[in-house]
Write a structure and sequence with these properties.
8-stranded mixed sheet; alpha+beta; Ribosomal Protein S5, domain 2; Alpha-Beta Plaits; 4-stranded antiparallel sheet; binds (3R)-3-hydroxy-3-methyl-5-(phosphonooxy)pentanoic acid
């Protein structure tokens, strides 16, 4: 018995870090995917094969003893083995999303992995898969807001908040150029750094959370109207808060300035400290040209409207 599922990567358009403290976020699923195949095996092993690492181990190992990158998949397989009493599972991962760049490789892997593994036994709803995926992601990053897995499950552009999530129907003219710093980051350590900033500057941080909530509210409407110029201004404002909480660095600053100079607005996407920035355009080539001239790889991100796809 085999089961295959695929989930898209994502970018965070607005609200990263502040979403951890309840301000909400706007995220977009992108047209790069991770596909996971799960297979029942007779050998009493959990076998994971991926381009970023492989593992063949006994079931029942404590999560902390499993290599960090493969831990969520190990957790999903191990939990399934325990509940369904089969000997072993082989999990194969194929990815179009670079790891550690803030483009949702980990969340897409958790969502596709949860669907593929549970698809061996039964049909599960998207909400059930999302729940399994967030729990799997918590094995590497306990404090996740859950926003990333939510957009990878449901696709499209979503507003994510404490009250759940809603889809946003964005205008057709939205162009997103994603540029890579080439440096990976650890979401967990950047989030820990922000926590320290918040503890040292509670009033300033709380003011920024309120301002970020206002951005999220306004941006939903601007996306629906397709008002790229105003969205760009909001991106630049959001970027100033990300700079204030210390998640940027010299390379990211240079990239953001390049993006801002050649588009409606630009900011870091994801945790920062490495990873990617994006620029908002109305489809023109200026931002992509400027990033390339600056020596940064970039691509035009298409919006994935499907989210999780289950193939069996
Ligand atoms: O892992 P990244 O780079 O997509 O960042 C996750 C977004 C944060 O807001 C920093 C954390 C979270 O769980 O929402």
């Amino acid at each position: 018995m085999k089961s295959t599922a695929s989930a898209p990567g994502k970018i965070i358009l607005f609200g990263e870090h502040f979403v951890v403290y309840g301000s909400g976020a706007i995220l977009c699923a992108i047209d790069r995917r991770i596909t996971v195949t799960a297979e029942e095996t007779m050998e009493k092993k959990i076998h994971i094969i991926s381009e970023i690492g492989s593992l063949k181990a006994e079931p029942g190992i404590p999560a902390c003893d499993v290599d960090c990158i493969l831990r969520p998949l190990y957790h999903l397989a191990d939990t399934a083995l325990r509940s369904h009493g089969i000997p072993g599972i082989k999990v194969t991962v194929k990815s179009e999303i670079p790891a550690g760049m803030g483009l949702g490789s980990s969340s897409a892997c958790c969502v596709a992995g949860a669907a593929a593994v549970s698809g061996l036994f039964s049909d599960y709803s998207r909400e059930e898969i999302l729940h399994l995926a967030v729990n799997a992601e918590r094995t590497i990053f306990q404090d996740t807001s859950g926003a990333d897995c939510t957009v990878c499950t449901h696709g499209g552009i979503i507003r994510y908040g404490g009250d759940g999530h809603e889809k946003i129907d964005a205008g057709q003219n939205l162009g997103i150029i994603v540029a890579s710093s080439g440096a990976t980051h650890s979401t967990k350590s950047v989030v820990a750094k922000v926590k320290k900033f918040r503890n040292a500057n509670p009033a300033e941080f709380s003011g920024m959370c309120d301002a970020e909530s206002d951005i999220i509210r306004d941006v939903k409407e601007l996306l629906e109207q397709g008002d790229i110029a105003q969205l760009g201004k909001k991106a630049n404002q959001n970027q100033r808060y990300l700079e204030a909480i210390g998640v940027t660095n010299q390379t990211l600053q240079e990239m953001v300035r390049i993006g801002q100079g050649a588009s409606a607005g630009a900011k870091i996407t994801g945790a920062g400290g490495g990873g990617c920035v994006f620029a908002l355009t109305d489809g023109g080539p200026a931002a992509a040209d400027a990033f390339r001239e600056g020596g940064y790889e970039c691509f035009a991100a298409g919006i994935d409207s499907d989210g999780l796809i289950v193939f069996n």
